[in-house]
Amino acid sequence: MEPDAEERIKAAAQAQVIECLNRFYAMETGLWGGPLDALIVRTIIVGDIQGRPYDLSALAGVLDIPVSTIHRRVNDLVERNLLERSAAGRSVYLKPTVQTRQALDMTFDDMLATLTRLYRGDVGPRCGVSD
């Protein structure tokens, strides 16, 4: 394969991956708010799925964000019913609410279909995500 052809294929693949990431970002921020809120909620969901719940300081550490910022954002996310606090001994852990889980479940099929199309090479300019 010619170097020019390889570069065109690479550029097309990069464009498709970036388009998919942008679509996922749009879905996430539509569900959970701005980029920092989406990052926090996503991290809490992953921790919950893996059976490793986060408290404020662990979350701040893994995201490399000051505890004071995490505290403010988490308070807002709790008020918006996206996260909830769960006491365990002297620690307070964060977990996604039922509302957050349901919102993720509703968009998960679109996300999975997009990734499937990407890996098959079926992804067009809109990344296979329905509007």
TrEMBL record:
<dbReference type="InterPro" id="IPR036388">
    <property type="entry name" value="WH-like_DNA-bd_sf"/>
</dbReference>
<dbReference type="InterPro" id="IPR036390">
    <property type="entry name" value="WH_DNA-bd_sf"/>
</dbReference>
<protein>
    <recommendedName>
        <fullName>MarR family transcriptional regulator</fullName>
    </recommendedName>
</protein>
